[in-house]
Design goal:
By secondary structure, the chain is mainly α. The chain is built from five helices and two strands, in the order H-E-H-H-E-H-H. A two-stranded parallel ribbon has the order 1-2.
């Protein structure tokens, strides 16, 4: 087994999703290799086909569990690459990568969602749900979500195995 195998992508090897807050300055095993690079690459290709110049992604740099592809530096570097690597970018039709949630707290994100009418009962954040889809309530993602709802002054409408 490769020690850098992420828990979320370990289909052949069983790696437990850590419970509780992850250590500071350490990329957790829940990191998915190149996830946002892949998402943005597909979006960039489709944007060029459509003639669109604006691409949006919902990454967050404040409560982001330490993933390197959720940082402003990554978004800026991808935008620069997009404008160097595409016909549109080279021909003077630059791309703008927008990350409107990047500097918001989870509470602010939840508040904006509520203001926009998001039905949070239909959302999911857990890294280690039960086979029935019930959130565990104790992985880093669940803890950040629960903290965000508490700081926003409202309760999370989904059910948790533990909370």
């Amino acid at each position: 087994m490769n020690l850098s195998t992420p828990a979320i992508t370990s289909w052949l090897v069983s790696i437990d999703v850590p419970k509780g807050k992850v250590e500071e300055n350490q990329i957790p095993v829940t990191y998915v290799p190149a996830r946002n690079t892949i998402f943005l690459s597909f979006a960039l290709g489709w944007a060029e086909v459509l003639g669109a110049s604006d691409i949006f992604i919902g990454v967050n740099a404040l409560d982001y569990s330490g993933y390197p592809d959720c940082r402003p530096e990554f978004i800026e570097a991808f935008q620069q690459m997009a404008n160097l690597a595409t016909k549109a970018g080279v021909e003077g039709q630059p791309y703008q990568i927008h990350a409107p949630l990047i500097n918001l707290s989870k509470a602010q994100i939840i508040e904006q969602g509520l203001a926009l009418g998001v039905d949070y009962r239909l959302t999911h954040s857990c890294y280690d749900p039960t086979p029935e889809g019930l959130s565990c309530g104790c992985c880093d993602s669940c803890l950040l979500r629960l903290k965000g709802f508490a700081e926003a002054g409202c309760s999370d409408p989904i059910d948790y195995l533990q909370s």
